[in-house]
Amino acid sequence: MKIAIRNARIVDPASGRDGRGELYIAGGRISEEFGKPDRVIDAKGLVVAPGFIDIAARLREPGFEYRATLESEMDAAVAGGVTSLACPPDTDPPLDEPGLVDMLRRRAKAISRARVYPIGALTVKLEGERLTEMAQLAEAGCVAFTQANAPLADTQVLWRALQYAATFGFPVWLRPQDAWLAKGGVSHDGEVATRLGLPGIPAFAETIAMAAVLELVRATGARVHFCRLSTAGAVEMMRSAKREGLHVTCDVGVHHLHLSDMDLGYFDSNCRLEPPLRSPRDRDALSRGLEEGVLDCVCSDHTPVDDDGKHLPFAEAEPGATGLELLLPLTLKWGEARKLPLAKSLARITSDAARILGVSSGRLAIGAPADIAIFDPAGTLRVSADTLKSQGKHTPFVGYELAGRVRYTLVAGNVVYET
Amino acid sequence: MERNPQLNANGELQHLLSIEGLPRDILTQILDTAESFAGVTEREVKKVPLLRGKSVFNLFFEPSTRTRTTFEIAAKRLSADVINLNIALSSQTKGESLLDTVANLSAMQADIFVVRHASSGAPFLIARHVKPHEHVVNAGDGRHAHPTQGLLDLYTLRHYKKDFGRLIVAIIGDVLHSRVARSLIHGLTTLGTPEVRVIGPQTLLPTGVEALGVKVFHDMREGLRDCDAVVMLRLQNERMNGALLPSAQEFFKHYGLTLEKLSLAKPDAIVMHPGPMNRGVEIDSSVADGPHSVILPQVTFGIAVRMAVMSIVAGN
């Protein structure tokens, strides 16, 4: 199908382009201008951008289908303009065998909405003891390896895992958190946790783990991507690591750009996240770090949790929030607060995320995959259980009206969502 | 942030979940009401008909003898029907969720739920889901709050010391895990106590505790100087030997209250303890049973305070 998008404001962070124009799609790719389109999309008043790339979105399959299914979450993805997503291996069973990865990719392909990039388990069953067959998992389609939120307390195993991954050049994605210091904790160790009587996770649980990983990166040459930084200290460590020339990158979860432990209010279990929401000072450092490029990209860390998992006392509630459909509005909100040009805000969920994931999408260049999001920057999304497509209805932003409403989503030149 | 979930639209006490955030006049109202009930508990017929026909469900998700019993006595003295549920031993082990349990009891026409739960914030969750005419009274949630204990401590202090405006109060021991300490600190600061001290080793004081409005002391002798009241906290057995403390003996040596250390406080200082006491761990018997101790009167006051709380919430 040949599609022409007309009257658009085209924003392509990769090239810095931001201006009126037309965009042509043929053969699933962005193409030169042509004569007779099969379909014309009038994008008057809308922004045409590369489809968003979410480097952390849980689809809950296999194993947690009562919380969400591939169908429901793929619907949520494209409703949020997300055309590519990476899913962590913390399913049940975890993605630690090529067969599981293969099945997930087939299922995702059959649903044919967003592109799914599985992240393989770094250790068998995510237990932090034995390495997975990384090379075979990579052949099956894993683009990186991670422990997700499972602890890896044994630094000997961590060292060997990084050595082994480095041998093959596989990226390793690690959320820095010292397993012992974080044990039993459910919130940021600070004044709010003290007041609420919640067991805390100190900020140095993150920086100590990060320091250990950075040392291992120096020793092994592994390519490490740090996931979901949450502290000001980690931002500063990242800054010096990059200055030193280490091949490390990092991301932040979109919630952590806007919220702090103060938002826990009276034990709001929607604010039970991993890592925990930290102090306002940490939040501000993350927000600034993302603007400065110390943090490379932002992700939704989408985690559908059912009512049973959230209608519990704070410490017992399942961590996580739904996020795929909020990635754009919350990224725009961040960019607006920091007074950034639209292309710069969108870069963090398009070209920068593509670089971390190692994919060729995330840009609007001729010949690039026609993965496109068309959105109304002024249109609002009222966040509620009814409006969210995801089966996960729990988010700290429930009840909010957020600007940034996706109107069309195209994957490989096919319109997979329109409203 | 949502409205204080303890107060109804008129700013009256709908539930008692935490002392934090309660205005001074509500605290005073509770203490004054408790004082009016103190007489009742000394009469031959120890009953008033304020809660006649009402049902009080004691929902204890965590074992307790003392608090549960005093709530039961208080409810009975208000002429309520009391149902004790030891949920620690029943539905929770069968996997029923907290809210399902509450919904079931609510269907049995409850008026007041008295809730004890091991998880901080559990009574807030329940209060968010009960019917408008039902009331929740927190009888201790995790490390967070134990508001009726805090109120009975305030009652005791007011009884013996009259005016909060001049007091120095020291709270000693395991503040980290103590809901009693948190509730009392909020109560004392709300009522204008000029100096609240917490005393303990770093391992037993929570991060940023100063933000609650207290002065931190690690040296007990220094912290006791010129105190009007000393509140000892219970040290749980499982915390005596491990990463928090090397031994009960060493703790007693540095943070146990002895007559010798107590002599650093004001001569008329009172000694309080929420119970149950570990004699020889946080408090020496000579102090616990000595002339400064008001530990047993605290228990008696606790009944009047719980009567006050239940009668006030039921009336709002």
Set out the fold topology.
The complex is a heterodimer of chains A (419) and B (316).
Chain A: E1 3-12, E2 17-26, E3 29-31, E4 39-42, E5 47-50, E6 52-54, H1 70-79, E7 82-87, H2 98-111, E8 115-121, H3 134-140, E9 144-146, H4 155-168, E10 171-174, H5 179-182, E11 187-188, H6 191-196, E12 200-201, H7 204-220, E13 223-226, H8 232-244, E14 248-253, H9 280-292, E15 297-299, H10 307-310, H11 327-337, H12 342-347, H13 351-357, E16 372-382, E17 401-411, E18 414-418
Helix pairs in contact in A: 2-3, 4-7, 7-8
Chain B: H1 24-38, E1 55-60, H2 66-77, E2 81-86, H3 98-106, E3 112-117, H4 122-129, E4 135-141, H5 147-161, E5 168-172, H6 179-190, E6 195-199, E7 215-217, H7 220-224, E8 229-232, H8 248-255, H9 259-262, E9 270-272, H10 285-288, H11 295-315
Parallel strand pairs in B: 1-2, 1-3, 3-4, 5-6, 5-8, 6-7, 8-9
What attributes characterize this protein structure?
heterodimer; A: 419 residues; alpha/beta; eight-stranded mixed sheet; B: 316 residues; five-stranded parallel sheet; 11 helices
